[in-house]
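A.,

Following up on our hallway conversation. Structure tokens first:
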């Protein structure tokens, strides 16, 4: 993961003047990727502090987005479109979040916006990839330790550790698209319907990365 901080430049729309909904994303126009073709990748807005915008990019070792994020230097110009989207706040009695590393910035931003606890189960590459989450987001880290990303086994097994409270529940599920669908359906064991789950695929296995 690499943290990228963007600041407004003279003549551009001020970052501070715009509305930045929780969990929104921006489409960054990549440079140094493909000739004669504009390439964009979407990144979640982790935070906005005064007139700076923070995004955290996963360096997965291949693809235009990872190459761009790894090679970015201080004072490089960055063009983006957005913001777009929003993560709805929970109104249920209990809540849980399931994610891989691609969704950690969104989960962190959501937790910061809440005045309640948001338990998190997070799949990561290994223990070295632990990501800073707010104090109200107790997390169970699930390192792959050499296993391929994009499978559903680790997070599905972690469902045995979910302790739903009384009353209504709500879940946030973010990660590989097909894994997200499988996890959403597995949450039915807790009485959650599809309308009780915010399910969002941030990338697709065996296809071009989108983030």
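Then the amino acids I'd put at each of the 211 positions:
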């Amino acid at each position: 993961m690499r943290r990228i901080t963007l600041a407004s430049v003279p003549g551009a729309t001020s970052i501070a003047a715009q509305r930045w909904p929780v969990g929104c994303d921006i489409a960054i126009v990549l440079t140094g990727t493909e000739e004669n073709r504009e390439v964009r990748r979407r990144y979640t807005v982790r935070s906005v502090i005064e007139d700076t915008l923070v995004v955290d990019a996963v360096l997965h070792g291949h693809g235009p987005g990872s190459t761009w994020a790894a090679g970015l230097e201080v004072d490089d110009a960055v063009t983006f479109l957005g913001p777009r989207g929003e993560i709805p706040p929970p109104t249920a009695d209990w809540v849980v979040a399931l994610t891989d590393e691609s969704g950690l910035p969104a989960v962190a931003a959501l937790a910061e916006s809440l005045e309640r606890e948001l338990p998190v189960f997070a799949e990561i590459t290994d223990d070295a990839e632990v990501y800073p989450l707010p104090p109200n987001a107790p997390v169970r880290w699930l390192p792959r330790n050499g296993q391929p990303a994009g499978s559903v086994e680790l997070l599905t097994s972690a469902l045995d550790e979910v302790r739903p409270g009384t009353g209504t529940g709500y879940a946030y599920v973010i990660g590989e698209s097909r894994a997200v669908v499988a996890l959403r359906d597995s949450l039915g064991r807790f009485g959650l319907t599809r309308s009780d789950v915010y399910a969002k695929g941030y990338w697709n296995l065996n296809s071009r990365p989108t983030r």
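The chain has two domains: 2-84, 94-203. Curious whether your intuition agrees with the design.

B.
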